[in-house]
Amino acid sequence: MAVSAGLALTACGGPKPAPGSGSGAKADAFKPVTIGKGFTGKGGNVNVLMSTDFQTLDPGNSNYVQTANVGQLYYRTLTMAKETAGQPPKIVPDLATDLGKVSKDGLTWTYTLKKGLKFENGKPITSKDIKYSVERTYARDVYTQAPQELNSALTDDGYKGPYSDGDFKGIDTPDDRTIVFHLKQPFAEFPALVSRSNTAPVPKDKDTKLDYTNHPVSTGPYKIKSYQRGRSMKLVRNDQWDPKTDPNRTALPDTFTFSLSTAQATISQQLLADSDPNAITLDSAGGLQASDAAKLNEPKIAKRTAAGLLGCTDVLGFNTESITDPDVRKAIALAMDRKAMQIQYGGNRFGKLTQSFINSSQRGYVEQHTDLDPSGKPKLAEAKKLLEGKKVPKKLVYGYADATPRYKNIGTTLQQNLKKIGIDLELRPIPAANYYTVLASDKLPDIARSGWCGGADSGSVRTTVDPNLGPSLDGKTYGFSNSQRYYDKKISGAMYKLRGENGTSEELGKKWATLMDQAMQSYPLVPLVRSFTNSVVGSNVRNAQVGYFFGSIDLSIVGVER
After folding, report:
1. Which fold would CATH assign to domain 310-530?
2. What range(s) does the Solute-binding protein family domain occupy (predicted)?
3. Considering the chain, what is the average pLDDT of its residues?
4. Which residues contact 162 (CB under 8 A, 6 or more apart)?
5. CB contact at 8 A, 109 and 237
6. How far apart are CA 188 and CA 199, in angstroms?
7. Do 73 and 555 touch, CB atoms closer than 8 A?
8. In this predicted structure, what is the pLDDT of residue 7?
9. Of 71, 73, 57, which is closest to residue 215 (Cα–Cα)?
10. Taking 60 as the threshold, does the pLDDT of residue 10 lie above it?
11. pLDDT of 459 higher than 80
C-alpha cells in the first residue's frame, strides 16, 4: 500500500517550506515539506481529527494505511517500514535484531528478537506470540481483512487458523527469541513482508477474536486508555516500552487524543483557522476540501502545511464478475472524464493524473500501454464504437465511502459520462468504516473507487501488482486484495508461477510489470490520480511529515511545542 518521488505536479505551486523545515528552498511543489523538522521536545498532547473511526485497530485484521499509521504507536512488528518524506520507506529492524538471515535455497528466513521486549502488562514478548499473531490471520472466516501477502509466501498445507487447525507448520519457534519462517518459494523482499501487521505480537490469553479491536495489547510506546467506537480514543504512554530497543519511534507527546466523527468540512475549517494549535488529521488529502485549496497560498497557512508526493494511487475498479466483457469495461474507461474527476481531488495541487498503477521509480518498471487520453479527456466516439453489437448493461452501481464528499462527486461525474453511452449509474453510499469490508463481500458494487499505497516495500513492483491483480494463495481464483476479482487463467497462472521464481528484485519486477501490462489490456481498473498531499497542522505541531506510504502525518515522529 508505491510510486515515483520524482513525478512532476503542474500548476498551483506548492506551499513554501516553513521555518525549521530544514529546506531553505523556494516554493516547489515537487519537493516534500516537513514542519518543525528536528524537534526533540517531549510532552503535550496531539489532537487527531478524523471524519470516521478506524476500520479496525486489530493488527491481525487490518489492511489499511490509517491503522498502520496509528499502529506505529501501540504495536511493533519484526521489521518496520520507516518513512522519510518524499521517499519510499526503508525496511529496518523493529522487534528483530536485523532484517533476517536467509538459507542458501531461499526457502527459510530466521529472525532473532531483541532482549527486553514486553507487552503493556509486563509479560515478555516471545517468538511464540509472533507465531500466534500470524496464525490468527489464517482464520479468514473471522478476520475478513487480514493481510495476506505474508501468508501467500509461507508453506501452509491449507491451514485455517488456530481456532480450528491448531499448530501451524509454516513457522518454527525453537526458543523464545528465535522465529523461523518456511517459504513455498524464494521471496527476495521477504523482510518487507514481516513488516506487515501480521507479525505484531498478540498474546494468546488476551485474544478475544473480533473484540480484540477494542483493546489490542500494546507492544509500542503508547497504549489505549479509552476507546469509544465512532466517537473518540485516547492513547497514553506505555511504561513497559523500552526506548533502548526502539530507535524508530521518538514517542515525544505524552498523549494522543483522537476525534473519530468530525465532518471533513469542519476538519478543514479548524485546521485552516488554527483553532486548535495541537491538531492534525489522518484523513486523505489532509482533510481539505477542494474549495479550500486556494487558501494554502496564504502565508500564515503555508508555513503550517506539510506536503509530499505519496506512494498512493486512486483507481476506479470494475467488478469483473458483473461487468464481464473486457470491451464494455474499456468503453466505460474511455468514456470517463478523468480530468473532471481530478478536479474533485483539488486539481494538480492534490494529485497528478496517471496512466498506470505502477511507475518508473519502482524496481523493474516496464512501460505500460493504455488507450486512455493522457490529459484525462473522454474518448466518447471510441467508446461508442466498442459497444456496437455488445450486450451493454442498462444500469450499473457505483459504491463510495460516504464520509468523503469528493468520492460522491466523482460518482456524479461518472454518472454523467456513462449516460452519454447509454448506461444509467446508481450512486450508492457505503459507511466509510465498513467500506473495504463491503468490497470484499458479495455486496461488491459494479464500480468502486479504491486506493493503494504500494506495499511495505514501496520500491517493488510486485507489492503493487500481486495484491491488486494477483491470484489467491492457491492460484485458483482471484486474490484477497484483488477487489476487481480479476482472474485470467493464463495471466493469473503466470503470476502464480512467478511468485516462485528466483532473481533480483529488478529482474522479477520486469516480469511482474509485463504481466500487469497484459492484464490491464482487459481494463479491470482505471488509474485516476497519484496523490500529492498538503496537510495543514496546528501551529504547535512539529516534525510533521507526510508519510509516503501512510498518505498523512507520520505519527511515529510527530511532537508538539509547549
Report:
1. Dipeptide-binding Protein; domain 3 (3.10.105)
2. 90-457
3. 89
4. 132, 135, 136, 138, 139, 168, 204
5. no
6. 18
7. yes
8. 24
9. 57
10. no
11. no
